[in-house]
Design a protein that fits this description.
Blueprint lengths: L2 E5 L2 E4 L4 E8 L7 E7 L6 E6 L5 E3 L7 E6 L4 E6 L8 E8 L2 H5 L5 E2 L3 E6 L1
Parallel strand pairs: 2-11
Antiparallel strand pairs: 1-3, 3-8, 4-5, 4-9, 5-6, 7-8, 9-10, 9-11
């Protein structure tokens, strides 16, 4: 049974930084594509950043230059470094993993974490 457990969320002021982590267990396939999604209250869940098994990354436009996604395959851990945080970044952040990048991309990943809350005050 694959499990994804996020941590690192919290409350910060605008301009601050947070680092999210997602530890995966139950599989050791480093070929899985992984990503971070977020969902604000009353809004749909949206893709934030994704990373291929080879380290290739992609970001939604609103976080480019501020967020960095990375993975440590030896530790089965996914990270999201978030800098220059804005109030509009406030959301529940979810880690996701799937063998297929296209499935992950559209938000239909097979595995999801329980989420970690990020709150940015102005």
């Amino acid at each position: 049974q694959v499990q994804l457990v996020e941590s690192g969320g919290g409350s910060v002021q605008a301009g601050g930084s947070l680092r999210l982590s997602c530890v995966a267990s139950g599989y050791t396939d480093s070929n899985y594509c992984m990503g971070w999604f977020r969902q604000a209250p009353g809004k749909e869940r949206k893709r934030v950043a994704t990373i291929f098994s080879d380290g290739t990354t992609s970001y939604t436009d609103s976080v480019k230059g501020r967020f960095t996604i990375a993975r440590d395959n030896a530790k089965n851990t996914l990270y999201l470094e978030m800098n220059s945080l804005k109030p509009e970044d406030t959301a529940m952040y979810y880690c996701a993993a799937d063998p297929s990048f296209s499935t992950l991309w559209i938000g239909s990943a097979k595995y999801w974490g329980q989420g970690t809350q990020v709150t940015v005050s102005s």
